[in-house]
Automatic annotation (TrEMBL):
This is Thioesterase family protein. The keyword Transcription does not apply. Belongs to the 4-hydroxybenzoyl-CoA thioesterase family. Keywords: Hydrolase. It comes from Mycobacterium pinniadriaticum.
Length: 134
């Protein structure tokens, strides 16, 4: 799924900027996590639906490439997409844009775990169906 299948708008807050007036690098992954949660809400209703269905997911890897700096008060859009599911893994992709200008790209790999024990497990069929329809 293309990284712009779902989008989360945000405005850069002053507190997210470093002494050079640019967004501090750590905030980009926070935005990616926020956008993932919004995509999950769009597809499943809310995150509790996953927990009630017996699953959760944990981050196994993250990557981030910076293309241009973002600054205080910029209006950004975090686009979210999903690659085809693995047996236990989900790779999500992100594009952070200011208008048409690409600011950063990211990818995260999450692993499905049992919601109670946090033991790795395959994605259930209901999750596969819903994420594919997303």
């Amino acid at each position: 799924m293309e990284p712009d299948r779902f989008g989360m708008p945000l405005r850069v807050r002053y507190v997210e900027c470093d002494m050079q007036g640019r967004v501090f690098n750590g905030h980009y992954l926070t935005w990616v996590d926020m956008a993932l949660n919004e995509a999950v809400r769009h597809i499943f209703g809310d995150y509790q639906t996953l927990i009630d269905g017996g699953i959760d997911f944990v981050v196994a890897a993250a990557e981030l490439q910076f293309r241009r700096p973002a600054h205080f008060d910029d209006d950004l859009m975090v686009g979210v997409g999903f690659d085809p599911l693995g047996r236990t893994s989900l790779r999500s992709t992100y594009r952070i844009r200011r208008g048409e200008e690409l600011i950063a790209e990211a990818a995260m790999i999450h692993v499905c775990v049992d919601a109670a024990t946090l033991v790795k497990q395959p994605w259930p069929e209901w999750f596969r169906e819903r994420i594919g329809q997303g």
